[in-house]
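Project standup — Tuesday

K.O.: blocked on the structure for the chain from last sprint. Re-posting the sequence here as requested.
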Amino acid sequence: MRTDEARWLRLEPQPGETLRSALERTLRDAIRGGVLRPGVRLPSSRALAAQLGISRGVASDAYEQLCAQGFLRNRVKAAPVVGAVDRPSQSVARRAAPRSVRFDLMPGIPDVSLFPVRSWAQVLVRAAEASPSSALSYGSPRGELELREALADHLGSTRGVVTDPDRIIVLSGTAQGAHVLAHALVSTGAHRIAVEDPSWDTQVGRLRLGGLEVIGQPVDGDGLVVDGLAADAVLVAPAHQFPTGTVLSGSRRRQLLAWARAHDALVIEDDYDAEFRYDQVPAPSLQGSDPERVAYLGTASKTLAPGLRLAWLAAPPWLADEAERIKHLLDFCSPVLDQLGLALFLRRGDYDRHVRRVRTVYRRRRDALAQALHAHLPGLVLEGVAAGLHVLLRLPADADDRAIAAAAESEGVRVAPLSAFSISGRAQPGIVIGYGQVPARDLDDAVAALARAVMKGVR
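H.V.: unblocked you, prediction finished:
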């Protein structure tokens, strides 16, 4: 890190203090207080002297004294840099970094090393070169038209989504989608939303933050249980429920849509990883069966990389304008050049080619994981269809899945306890295992270590 200027710096000598002492004290306090962090390059003595209206000798003397005290590090023919010094403890505690483990089997995380860096760099460069300078200004809250058109075509052909570019809102991840939809629902008079129980705890928190009362709705082998549903909206992942891995059955899909029409309610479809179905073609989107009642959420986080923060909402016509208004208030617009890059990535066929490639990789990893679990933990049931980036390993009813997950971490394996995703607190114990980040060749060793922890915790 470097800084060629320090325009915040003001030299204010105290009574009886020389200019050199005042400069030395000011810089020392800035280093101790954290204003100047280790490694920051300070201005040259000539530049600092000119800025403060002092002689270069005063600046040089102050630098030399601070170097002698260890606050600065001198360099040959270069300005000094701030050294590493002890600072007073901060009042705000920093979150401890997670302990390193040998095998990270946390669910829902793709292998970012598979990201197509070269192809992505090409489309970004081309988008930047072909775009007018106005592309670097504030963009449309709905998203760039080129991307919305490409998404409308792609979602229609691959997921059966019925929409047009005017009803698509480009988001900074589906996390923002939860914020947008929660606020939009509240503004239309909604109060309560049902979510699958168990489900992502972070999405529950976002919906609550948006002002909605969240209630859990049970999930069984056919997906969301529609009987007894009492809410203004419901969030569901029909293609691949997290974390149970079930698929919403045909009868349940029809029942859910009939419920939404009868109660003038909104169904939010979280289609977070439908591209990764390994044994058959995934069922088409729920939204395609009733575009007036279903808001569709999709994302590039699992197919490309979470760090891109690119996702999309295909909203019902009556909700699109309000969703755009909320998006505008949250962050005005998503990064324009990234949107134009994704549009070109889709149009060139790079996206589909990448998905086909990584689908093969993840299927191989899932098969290796299933084989290892059968070999090392044959008495336990593996649940979930052959899809996505995770499986669910059921445990006996008296097992403590949180204690087993902690024991697994001590064995060098990080997994998630099923109870961590329970809204009601009544989930049967289980371990949610992700295979996105671990190569197939390492999964047997990973499961062997996990099995040691499970056997200690299962009586």
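K.O.: great, moving the ticket to review. The chain has a mean pLDDT of 92. Residues 122 and 341 are 9 Å apart (CA to CA).
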